[in-house]
Amino acid sequence: MAEPVVVTLDVRDMVPRERHPAIFSRLDALQPGDILRLVNDHDPAPLRYQLLAERPDMFTWEPEKQGPEEWIIRIRKIAEES
């Protein structure tokens, strides 16, 4: 079995309104099993809620680091959009 691809996306320097579209674009490009390692400057809880609402059962959410100045979340794609 191949190792999963891990893509790191650091959104700390992005304009806030551009962050979610960029993240969703990267997530949608992943193959099942691959991981987006998201680096953010605040708790990305709103992103998690949006992901659960718009892409249910497609991703897992694994916090790697939770503040206070940096949050790192490993988001693994587990299924294709149906």
Describe it for me?
The protein is an alpha+beta fold and 82 residues long. It is built from two helices and four strands. The model has no long low-confidence stretch (mean pLDDT 95).
Q: What keywords describe this structure?
A:
82 residues; 4 strands; alpha+beta; 2 helices; 29% helix; 4-stranded mixed beta sheet
Q: What structural class do helix, strand and pairing data support?
A: alpha+beta
Kindly report how far apart the N and C termini lie.
Answer: 24 Å
Order of helices and strands: EHEHEE
Give Rg in angstroms.
12 Å
Mean pLDDT equals: 95
Instruction: Specify the oligomeric state.
Output: single chain
Lateral strand order in the biggest sheet: 1-2-4-3
Shape: globular
Number of strands: 4
Give the low-pLDDT segments: none
Residue share in β-strands = 25-35%
Percentage of residues assigned to helices: 25-40%
Number of helices: 2
Q: What composes the largest sheet?
A: 4 strands, mixed
Strand and helix map with partners:
Elements: E1 6-10, H1 16-29, E2 35-40, H2 45-54, E3 59-66, E4 71-77
Parallel strand pairs: 1-2
Antiparallel strand pairs: 2-4, 3-4
In short:
This protein has 82 residues and is α+β, with helices and mostly antiparallel strands.
